[in-house]
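HUMAN: Now follow token order:
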Amino acid sequence: MRDVHVVEIFGDLDTASLPGHRARIDALMRSGVHRLVLDLQGLSFINSTALGFLLALKERLEGEGGALAIARPSTVMEKALRVLRLDEVFRIRPTVEEAVADLQGG
């Protein structure tokens, strides 16, 4: 079974909060985690810098043989992904369990 780590993000994901989230994810990756599920149910705001970070994170994880999935995207996140057509780029699942299962099998 492949290890998958779930990271919950609440509130705003923007220039102010991004360094803390980046540090937490970098620490996970240094410890050997390369399959991440981002649980975004509690996300209330996301800006373009944060969306760029998510795209770069996806590429970085895939470059290291891992993967990224988004679970339970908030209405704000779902709208941003759809408008920017990023729903065609990210693995998006309605539940954390489905996202974890997807990454364990893929």
Remarks:
- The longest helix spans residues 48-63.
